[in-house]
Amino acid sequence: MAWLSSWESFVKVVETGSMSAAARRLDCTRAHVSKQVRELERAFGARLLERSTRKLALTPSGEVFYRHALRALEAIESTAVAIENLGDAPRGILRISATVTFGRMYVAPIIPKLIARYPELSCELILTDRLVDLVDDNIDLALRMTKAPPEDAVARKLVTLKRVICAAPTYFAAHGEPKTPQDLARHQCFSYLLANRGIWHLADSHG
Question: What CATH code is assigned to 3-84?
C-alpha cells in the first residue's frame, strides 16, 4: 500500500495548514511531503491544493478527496485495531464486578495469576453488593448470586450456593434453639440479602 503514505501526508497538510507543519508531524522533510502531494495530483489528474505565499487552500477536487481519504484512513486504522484484538493473547482492560465477600475470597487471589499469564491485560475489580448495570457501569464480567440474571446478558452458571440458618451460641443461650421452621417466627432473624424481601425459602434434607 505505497499510496497510504501519500494519503496520510495530504490529510496532515490539510489538518496543519502547511507542508512544513505536516512534515514535522510526520517526521520527514517538507520536500518529501510536497513530492507526495504532486504525485497525488498527477495520479488524479486534478489540482488538489491552491498554493500561495500565505497559505494552502483546498480546491473543489481537493475537498472531495480529503473527505474520502480521511474516511479511508480511519477505516484502515480501525481494521488494524480489530485484527490486533483477534490475537491469542487477551489485552486491554477487563472490568470485573463481584460481591464483596465472594470477590475478596475467590476473585482477588486469582487476578495476579491472570495478569502474570497475560501481561498485556489489565484488570479492575469492583467489589460491591449492589446490582450493577453492565452497560452504564462499563462492566465486562459480573459475578453474582442470583436465580434470575439479566435477560440481555450472556450468563453462565459457575457454582450452586447453599445457605444455612445460624446463630451465635450466646443467642441460643438467651433465647433458646428453634426446633422447627415454625419456631423461627418468634426469633429475631435477619437476612444478608435484602433483595429477597425478608422471605426465606427452605429446603429439606433431600433438597
Answer: 1.10.10.10
156 class by beta-carbon count within 10 Å (0-12 exposed, 13-18 middle, 19+ buried): exposed
Where does CATH 3.40.190.10 sit in the chain? 92-143
Is residue 50 within 8 Å of residue 57, measured between CB atoms?
yes
* The CATH number of the domain covering residues in 92-143: 3.40.190.10
Question: What does each of the 207 residues of the chain score in pLDDT, given as a tens digit?
Answer: 567 889 999 999 998 888 888 888 888 898 999 999 999 999 999 999 988 767 788 999 999 999 999 888 888 887 777 776 666 677 788 999 998 888 998 899 999 999 898 888 889 999 988 878 887 788 889 888 777 777 777 888 888 877 788 999 999 999 999 998 889 888 988 876 555 566 777 887 787
Extract the C-alpha cell encoding 4.
Answer: 497510504
Query: Long-range contact list for 195-203, CB < 8 A, 24+ apart?
Result: 195/131, 200/165
pTM of the model: 0.47
Cβ–Cβ under 8 Å, residues 120 and 137: no
Residues 6+ apart with CB under 8 A from 202: 181
Asked if residue 59 lies in contact with residue 89, where contact means CB atoms within 8 angstroms, the answer is: no
| CB within 8 Å of 133: residues ≥ 6 apart | 139
* Assigned C-alpha cell, 207: 433438597
